[in-house]
Amino acid sequence: MASTGTSEAASTSKSSEDAENKKDDSAFNEFYTEVKAIEKHDSVLTSKQQIDRLNRPGCTYFNLNPFDVLQCDPETPLADLKKKYRQMSILVHPDKNQDDKDRAQSAFEAVNKSYKTLENEEGMKRCREIIEEAQDRVEEMMKVQRKKLKKEGKPQIVPEDDREKYKHAVYVQTCKLFADLERLRVEKEAKDMHERKRKAEDEADQKEKEEIEKEWNKNFEDSRTGRVDSWRQFASKNKSHKKMKGTFRPPKPKLEKR
């Protein structure tokens, strides 16, 4: 009886050990799959591919998201962001891509600008808030879709329930938010520039008027003596003329004697 109990205990122990081994194997396989995926991802981080990516059509707006430019998750620590920045800046540096220097320079500037934005605490906070807003918009959109499906009596399953499709939806919303903010910034900058130009023109007009008035006053003062002398001469001549006119008496006519 004891032997049977011992055998059962050994069997249970063996099953438990096998289950644990399978669990370890599963964890290892999952880890190995992730490593292979990372290796595959890193294998495309060539200079040409990165330069192509950062100069693709629409890059003016795509490159507004610094996390996307550096290919990092928004929660990536700054130290890791710095490593990624160094790696990518070396890959796309114009000196290392002499055969494609202009596009390399453009890519390098995008990478440099992205890191400068994220190394600033306020810039990092602002970018993370934009991504959080994109996530909120996607989740709100999913709620609306589910509500509609429920009303129609259909299963409340939406495409964004799939993790990859959810990530893509967030990516699209993030691009849109960054693009909208950039358009607002450009419009404000243009408006400010127009206002500065108008103000400068008004100041130039006012200055010109003041110069004209100053010149007119100067000329007026300079000619004052001449005007006074002319007036005195005129007044003197007029007085003399009146005096002569007043003292002149024509001879009286004499009666003719017959």
Provide a descriptive summary of the structure in words:
By secondary structure, the chain is mostly helical. Helix content is 81%, strand content 0%. It contains 9 helices and no strands. α7 crosses α8 (163-222). Residues 34-44 have low confidence and may be disordered.
User: What is the average per-residue confidence, as pLDDT, rounded to a whole number?
Assistant: 80
- What composes the largest sheet? none
User: Rg, please?
Assistant: 45 Å
Strand content: under 5%
Overall shape: it is elongated
Secondary-structure element string: HHHHHHHHH
Helix content: over 70%
Low-confidence stretches: 34-44
Number of strands: 0
Output the number of helix runs. 9
Gap between N and C termini, in Å? 201 Å
Output the structural class: mainly alpha
Quick summary:
With 258 residues, the protein is mainly α. It contains nine helices and no strands.
Quickly list its features.
258 residues, mainly alpha, elongated
Topology, please?
Elements: H1 2-43, H2 47-54, H3 59-62, H4 66-70, H5 78-92, H6 101-119, H7 121-151, H8 163-222, H9 224-247
